[in-house]
Amino acid sequence: MKKLIKKILRESDFDWAKDVEYLPVEKYFINNFDSSTPRKPHPNVTLFDDEDGVTKFMIHGTDLGNFFYYSKNFGRELRSNFGIRYNEQKKMISDILQRNYNMEDFIVEVRDI
To answer: What are residue 65's DSSP bridge partners?
Structure first.
């Protein structure tokens, strides 16, 4: 069994340095994103509201590309809970979106929503 686990770990694309660090952040993001309620105020915009009706996320498709915005308040939550700065947040969220939601080529930004 030990040999099998070692073989699986060697052959997998699991990056221990990056992926283990992401696990609590990824779980926190997924819980927040999946529990939010989507609404479409415009054909190219989808807003995602939490249970209090506060918008945390926005997806906006334009001619320039697809954008995923997260609110400054959510960014503050990530910073206070995990010590992650905004530039690191954008990279982590981009990776999480690609891995969990197949959202390739989205530009991730923080903004007032």
So the answer is: 62
Q: Which of 72, 75, 46 lies closest to 59 in space, CA to CA?
A: 46
Counting the structural domains of the chain, the total is: 1
Task: Note the pLDDT tens digit of each residue in 27-57.
Answer: 999 999 999 999 999 999 999 999 999 999 9
Burial of 79 (0-12, 13-18, 19+ CB in 10 A): middle
pTM assigned to the model:
0.79
Angle between helices 16-34 and 72-82 (to 10 degrees): 130
Of residues 93, 71, 91, the one with CA closest to residue 26: 93
* Torsional sign, CA 112, 34, 96, 67: negative
Residue 80, in any domain of the structure: yes
The answer to whether residue 104 sits within a structural domain is yes
Is residue 3 assigned to a domain?
no
Give the C-alpha separation, 22 to 4, whole Å: 25
Which domain range does residue 82 map to?
15-111
